Amino acid sequence: MSAIEQMEKYSVARSTTASKGAAVVSAFILIVLISVPFWAARSDLRTVVEFAYYLSLAQMWNLLAGYAGLVSVGQQAFVGLGGYMLFVLAIYLNVPPIAAVFLSGGIVALIAIPTALTVFRLRGAYFAIGTWVVAEVFRLGFAQISVLGGGSGQSLPATIVREIGSGRSEREMIIYFTALFIAVLSVGIVYWLLRSKHGLALTAIRDSEPASGSLGVNMFKTKLSVYVLAAGVTGVVGGLIFLQKLRISPEAAFSVQDWTAAVIFIVVIGGIGTIEGPILGTLIYFVLRGLLADYGSVYMIVLGIVAVVVMLKAPQGVWGLLANKYNLYLFPLRRRLDRKNDLER
Amino acid sequence: MEWVNTVVQGVLLGGLYAMFATGLSLMFGIMRLVNIAHGDFIILGAYLGLVVVTTLGLSPLLSLIIVLPVMFMIGYVLQRVLLNRTLGTDILPPLLVTFGLSIILQNILLEVFSADTQKLPAGELGLSSITVTGDLSIGVLPLITFLVSVAVIGGLQFLFYRTELGRAFRATSDDQETVRLMGVGNSHIFGLAMAIAMAVVAVAGIFLALKTNFDPTIGPARLLYGFEAVIIGGLGSLWGTLVGGIILGVAQAIGAQIDPGWQILAGHLVFLIILIFRPRGLFPRSVD
To answer: What is the ipTM of this complex?
Structure first.
């Protein structure tokens, strides 16, 4: 039998039965989510918006730490910058608020370039703390800018709030759909990126930095682009968050607990280095938060303990455990070799 | 004259920052561990001091008789039970576990002690100063803090280069596998290293609490100051760390002199500038 005949017996596939099922289910969930504003209560809308921005933040942090080996504890820098850019664009440059949310992301991505060139001088764990210093510089810096309210912050003026939508329910609906779009976009970007040529480089870096380097992966360029991309999307999410809150202050905008600690716990518990992990992690986060909301800071303690235990006992996270046990890949990234006659039989 | 005064106060402040940094430097030097909860442990030390002072009525400096051994033991147990399990080639587990610890510790302190700010009573010590010339006077407490910091670093330097334990530390730092073959147990050595780091943290915590108001949330900022001092000084050099602390202290003092809101910011900016121009610090000794 010739080599070609041998090869013809096999086919390369990515999708699995589970992934095809998952695509159908996702489409269904998306349709349900689109219908939510037409029947659900106000507070439910707010929860879905929060879910959407935490999911997006988690996807971006996971892209950095889970794939590019860039463990940042300073992502609050970009959430805060995104929020402040929204206020600057909307108040001082008369940009329509929703457009300003997305434009903020672009500006944040630009600011991320010099930031990256500085913090990339630090390696590993020191890189992590370096990103935190940068976030602090932005927090302390914005507290000094009195036109933006200084340390006490400012609210979005009523005239601009009315620009989002004339009535309250109309505004909430517009913010809801923007949030939904951003969440789908962030999952989509990660999925698309990882299935592309760059994804292959990223996965290689995740598995072994020295080996991928020796195989010709341009480590610096790959890491830089991922860092800037993640910063940009995180900036868009920051704009969205403070569009919903309508008020910004340095403490809230650059909060490490809200925008980085919670996100890290979500990704670690859900499963780092997968697309499904952050989705599952965000669900777990909201369930835990619902259960423990009455206990104040106990809730962060429990979340922290769960994350530490998961990191030690099951570093692949809850999704990793499930995926291994049931061979489940809802967002298939790897190529698989199937024997053709197996399929025909 | 005002500026000379500012610089002197900055130098003395730098002594405290060097103490924050020494613990970090020790942990990284021996076991390549970066403890993100470092600052929160400093605050834990401060609160332990507060508990001892209020319940036993000891003076703050004497409270170290209890706080120091307690922190020493916390360090040893923490390393043996938790942190040793995270060490390996992957940087993610130690980073995320200590980050988790930081958040857990902050919130536990918040539950137990509330968000109210506290301070250890410095008494006479806090008020007295030495007049050098007409305009320049040096506070006794900052001076003691600085001298203690120098003594701590000198002591560690002696421990590292003149004792058997120090030899084991240095050997473990150089090559863990070979040290095991020579019959030195890594996990015990790491436990001792963390215990010593935590003893330094205890001293730093007490001096911090004598100097300023503290509350459960200020730990991370102390981690950043310590980290900046380590990087400015250059990895692996304890005396470099002291210089790093001093540079940071002076930068903050000058920043505060210009505008109180600029104190912390000036320190961070000087750190970033040094990082850009001298990424390996001023006195680098070890290679990553």
So the answer is: 0.91
Task: Provide residues of B within 8 Å CB-CB of chain A.
Answer: 34, 36, 82, 85-86, 91-97, 99-101, 103-104, 107-108, 110-111, 220-221, 223-224, 227-228, 231, 261-262, 264-265, 268-269, 271-272, 275-276, 279, 288
Written as one string, the DSSP assignment of B69-126 is HHHHHHHHHHHHHTGGGG-SS-SHHHHHHHHHHHHHHHHHHHHHH-S--B----HHHH
Provide the residue range defining the domain that includes A268: 256-328
Domain boundary among A254, A285, A318: A254
Please write the tens of the pLDDT for every residue from B12-69: 999 999 999 999 999 988 888 889 999 999 999 999 999 999 999 999 999 999 999 9
Output the furthest CA–CA distance in chain B (Å, rounded): 63
> Which residues are CB-contacts of B194 (< 8 A; sequence separation ≥ 6)?
B27, B31, B75, B76, B78, B79, B83
Instruction: For residue A22, tell me if it sits in a domain.
Output: no
Local structure of residue A156 (DSSP, 8 states): P
CB B192 within 8 A of CB B84: no
| pTM of the predicted model as reported, rounded to 2 decimal places | 0.91
**Residue B270, in any domain of the structure:** no
